[in-house]
């Protein structure tokens, strides 16, 4: 158990819909990272937040957005869903903002299926 | 563009040593990471290199050469539980993480 929690574990929804994925980091960690993993694209970095502020942005679509709240939990919002958005979405946390705090702890993931 | 290459699959025997190579071309460099991922599970952190040389951690070691854009992960005394995918990732100048496709390692008895 990494100490990172994600809800829900599974989500099935239809094209065009909007969903919210939630992540709670390990106690004391200030950074939250979001990743997408699909069979054809591998693991892709989406975005990082550090203490409520956006820190780094990767391959995140405009239809997707994220935020980190004062209690440090984070939410990833996916809208106008397409079949290709079906994937495993992982959240990870680390103590600091940059590579000096390099060890990331991954949550169990949310499996999103868009039908 | 940014690119990370790893072999797709490798096979080794229990008790042996295996080396998984990773080459990268990225926009800047802020560290190289190795992760282990068992099927159906989340990745787990194995190692981090930011300076050239070898980092050893128990049965696992990771090497980095920044001038060659090259790293390897060395697994010694292989065990059946080491059968997993191994992901190489680089953090670039913009603090983005770029992942390789992963190497699926099968350890045979």
Strand fraction of chain A? over 45%
Q: From the alpha carbons, calculate the radius of gyration of chain B and give it in angstroms.
A: 13 Å
Question: What is the overall number of helices of chain A?
Answer: 0
Number of strand segments of chain A: 11
Q: What about the largest sheet of chain A?
A: 7 strands, mixed
State the separation between the terminal residues of chain A, measured CA to CA.
31 Å
Name the structural class of chain A. mainly beta
SS-based class of chain B: mainly beta
The averaged pLDDT of chain B comes out at 95
Radius of gyration of chain A: 13 Å
Order of helices and strands of chain B: EEEEEEEEEEE
Q: Fraction of residues of chain B in helices?
A: under 10%
Descriptive overview:
The complex is a heterodimer of chains A (115) and B (109). The termini of chain A are far apart. With 115 residues, chain A is mainly β. In chain A, strands 2, 4, 5, 6, 9, 10 and 11 form a seven-stranded mixed beta sheet that branches. Chain A has a four-stranded antiparallel beta sheet with strand order 1-3-8-7, with no helix packed on it. Chain A has strands spanning 5-7, 10-13, 19-24, 31-38, 42-50, 53-57, 64-68, 74-78, 87-94, 105-106, 110-114. Helix content of chain A is 0%, strand content 52%. In chain A, β7 and β8 form a beta hairpin. Chain B has 109 residues and is an all-beta fold. Chain B contains no helices and eleven strands. Chain B has strands at residues 3-5, 9-13, 18-25, 32-37, 44-49, 53-57, 60-65, 70-75, 84-91, 97-99, 103-108. In chain B, strands 2, 4, 5, 9, 10 and 11 form a six-stranded mixed beta sheet that branches. In chain B, β4 (32-37) and β5 form a beta hairpin. Chain B is globular, with a radius of gyration of 13 Å. The N and C termini of chain B lie far apart (41 Å). Classes of the chains: A mainly beta (115), B mainly beta (109).
